[in-house]
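Please check this today:
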Amino acid sequence: MNKTNLIISGTPLLDELDGISPLEPQAEQRALVFTAGQHGMRLDRALVELVPEFSRNYLQQLIESGGVLINGQAMVKASHKVKVSDAGLIELRPTPQSQAFKAESMALDVVFVDAHVLVIHKPAGLVVHPAPGNWSGTLMNGLLGYDPRAFDLPRAGIVHRLDKDTSGLMVVARSRAVMDALVHAIAAREVKRQYLAIGQGAWSGAVKCPVDAAIGRDPVNRLRMAAVDLKLHPGKVARTDFELLSNGAQACLVHCTLHTGRTHQIRVHMAQLKHPLIGDALYGGAMDLGMSRQALHAYRLAFAHPVTGQALSFSARLPADFSAALAMLGLKYNQKDI
């Protein structure tokens, strides 16, 4: 049983779901019979035709791991050319990617839940979606463990994301209709997302500062995003409104309102303002001022309930490391002021 708190009313709402223990995937062996039309074809392409229920990427992984035998020998190159006379055998066994969409037991910090939506407080360090290096232990895995019905939804109902090291509130859909409605609401900018950020250096300039700067892949460092000129580089328009809340000699506390949702948007725009986030080494933030991750927290989330239309608004407490950094830097935070 998951106990949750509905912040807008303070009334506990209980939701009880039966757990499901998925079976461990078993390896399956299949004989491969190559046709005349596949003679001379790349092995991976031939397998896509012979085993169409699996993706080419998945089959390439099996080839590279020795899971495909041709005439009794493992073929580890996807580019190997097959012959119609070849005798093949494939062992369809689980890879990290193929097992990524699985349920895992996880202590989710549930802020609100009903039959349609789930609002959680994601801690820093939790990856949202499975990806190379993080094929398990993600929020998606935790959502599948929390509600078996999430298996019926793309990405287990996740409609937006936070970076691994950003903490704060996220809304998750619990049905396909609600997922479609939330995706539409986000695209229409009807879901309000507000953040708190600790920027490096004393703030100099207007207390309120809107930033309109397109964001695209950094043409110099492909691991980063950057503010780009759309006439010269690919990217998407992006806008963030910043407001100074507290200023200090070494850092500043800033309130951020997203109007678009680009990758690393606040991090890029703060760096453009010459105030990279404390702890954000990727964008030039100092690493010795109390934060071991980027000082960014999604503290407020507001949207109309996609089924009832009720206005919902949630606020998340500051994480311990964020509060400690504010104290160390002499910055003040009063939630009532914003």
